[in-house]
Amino acid sequence: MTDLFPRELDEAGIAAQQAAARGLLVARLERLYGFCEDNLGGVEDGGADPRFAELAVRIIDRLAKLYRLDRVPSSPDSDELDVVTSTALARSSVVQQLSDLSAKMTGAGS
Length: 110
Description:
- The protein starts with 10 loop residues before the first helix and ends with a helix.
- It is mostly helical.
- The chain has three helices and no strands.
- Helix 1 (11-38) packs antiparallel against helix 2 (50-66) and helix 2 runs antiparallel to helix 3.
- It has one domain.
- 68% of the residues lie in helices and 0% in strands.
């Protein structure tokens, strides 16, 4: 592995490397999310593992924070409102899917 970042960073170095570190973090999170998607087979495939679904939700949340999607837009007319709304809808959809999977797995175990 190559050293992308120096071993010691002062405040100026941290500020200078922030964009590169954020990009590296996004790439790693996307890779992890891809792994989660590969392991989220449907119920017809023997059922999804809720642990991968939970990890996927955490990754989505972390990415939303990195892209600052969790912040309230500056004005109601802003396009940012659509992004925040769609992110919230996606989160609630994933939470609902987790609840459904949990209920199915609990029912299947009985």
